[in-house]
Design a protein that fits this description.
- It is built from 13 helices and 10 strands.
- Strands 1-2-3-4-6-5 form a 6-stranded antiparallel beta sheet, with helices on one face.
- It has helices spanning 8-15, 29-39, 87-99, 142-159, 178-193, 199-210, 253-260, 262-265, 279-282, 287-298, 306-330, 338-342, 345-358; strands spanning 18-19, 48-52, 60-64, 69-74, 107-111, 121-125, 219-221, 230-232, 239-242, 249-251.
- Strand 2 (48-52) and strand 3 form a beta hairpin.
- It folds into 2 domains: 8-125, Phosphorylase Kinase, domain 1, CATH 3.30.200.20; 142-358, Aminoglycoside 3'-phosphotransferase, Chain: A, domain 2.
- It is 42% helix and 11% strand.
- It is α+β, with helices and mostly antiparallel strands.
């Protein structure tokens, strides 16, 4: 969802690494140090704090001590949408998955006391590796690209293999009616952040709830599963950690799967798009190959209603971008890049309506 001219280098500079902490999101270093001493096993200061550039929603910080590095994610200050920025939910799901050996950062502690730094937060281990911002993976060999894409698909299939109740997440979300609830949720959040009328969004808000797919099995749904939310090993394709569980819940795994496929739908002129790229030359699996691999790993069939699923996910992305636009308006957006994200509402909703028409709209 970046401007077409954004190159891989621009994306790395924009999203990768850390910077000085934005004054709007400054932390009380003394209060945090005291809390870390009391709550984080093995912690010993002094503490150096920097802010990660990436992340439009929840301010995320690198905490460095002489012997360790940690990551802190916090709920942003200010007036927020009611169901957003649930740090306690993120902490719950990564704790359960870490116990199963699934690739997530080791969680240390959750703080629900706003008095410490001004909002709820949690601290986890910092996982070393690569965050790959450009789906075309410039600078890599074709075989390396294919291996990374296969590892991404296999990781999502592994996540969807867990029985939520068996790993302590049986009450992590509501059973049944997943897409109905999600369409309602994103419609509500879109309306709460709406600035100017977007005709395609209005049409989608009518079409999607009237044409819901049959509910699949209830699984853990990440909600934002894409390549740049993974930490990949520095020297191979292994997924070392899945990041950013803010939107996770229990639901239909087809939502996650089809969201991952959005990369094949967005134009290759964007850093998070592959449509129009020479995938064979790049070594990147096609959408069809990816769907077949996922189906093989999970035992689930490839969905017959993929056009509806792609329309839904593009609608959802547009609603998320509208939420960012609302935070730009209200002065609570956590990234300078938020303005260009907000500008994507129109193009994403138009693309969603194109797939809705293929689905029978």
């Amino acid at each position: 969802m970046t401007d077409a001219a954004t190159s891989s280098e621009d994306a790395q500079a924009t999203f990768g690494g850390t910077r000085e902490v934005d004054p709007r999101y400054a932390l009380d270093a003394g209060a945090l140090d005291a809390w870390m001493r009391d709550n984080v096993e093995g912690y010993a200061g002094p503490l150096t704090i920097r802010q990660f550039k990436g992340g439009q929603s929840n301010p995320t910080y690198e905490l460095t001590t002489p012997t360790r590095a940690y990551v802190l994610r916090r709920k942003p200050p200010g007036v927020l949408l009611a169901s957003a920025h649930a740090m306690d939910r993120e902490f719950t799901v990564i704790s359960a998955l870490h116990a199963q050996g699934f690739p997530v950062a080791r969680p240390y502690a959750l703080c629900t006391d706003d008095a410490v730094i001004g909002s709820m937060f949690y601290v986890m281990d910092k996982v070393e590796g690569r965050v790959l911002w450009d789906l075309k993976l410039p600078g890599l060999e074709a075989a390396e690209r294919r291996a990374i894409y296969e590892a991404q698909t296999d990781t999502l299939a592994r996540l969807h293999g867990f029985d939520p109740a068996a790993i302590g997440l049986g009450d992590y979300g509501k059973p049944g009616n997943y897409f109905e609830r999600q369409v309602g949720r994103w419609t509500k959040q879109y309306r709460a952040s709406e600035i100017d009328p977007v005709p395609a969004m209005d049409r989608l808000i009518e079409f999607l709830p009237a044409t819901l797919p049959v509910q699949g099995p209830t699984r853990i749904v990440h909600g934002d599963f894409r390549l740049d939310n993974l930490i990949v090993a520095a020297d191979g394709p292994e997924v070392r950690a899945v990041l950013d569980w803010e939107l996770s819940t229990l639901g239909d795994p087809m939502a996650d799967f089809s969201y991952m496929l959005i990369g094949w739908v967005l134009p290759a002129s964007q850093r998070n798009g592959l449509a129009g790229a020479d995938l064979k030359a790049l070594g990147i699996p096609t959408l069809e190959e990816t769907a077949e691999r996922y189906a093989e790993k999970t035992g689930a069939g490839v969905p017959a209603d993929l056009n509806w699923l792609l329309a839904y996910n593009l609608f959802r992305l547009a609603a998320i971008c509208q939420g960012i636009a609302g935070r730009v308006r209200d002065g609570t957006a956590a990234s300078a890049h938020a303005r260009s994200m907000a500008a994507q509402v129109g193009p994403l909703s138009d693309a969603a309506w194109t797939y809705a028409k293929r689905a029978g709209a």
